[in-house]
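[[Local backbone shapes]]
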Amino acid sequence: MGLSGEDCYICPQGKVIPFTKVFYEKKNNTKKKEYRALKKVCMACPIRSKCLGKSAQEKKFNIIYYRPKYERNIARVNSKKGSYMKAKRQSTVEPVFLVHSLNF
């Protein structure tokens, strides 16, 4: 995220890469967000060759639409309470499931 809650990213040179559109990736029907810098922003950039490669004219990238929710869940799972709950589940629920699976 970028400036004061705006949906954008800031490149290493301090330029804004704004949100462009929401779309569904055709390969696996995943909802994504596209961010794209204007061509004129990238043309005069001193690190253009490192950032864009040989043929690209502008910086463009996609992230999964639900990324903030994924990050929040990862933080919750990796917290002290999350570790405790995982250990508790592994010691109570999963061994019982394994025993029932082996009997069938």
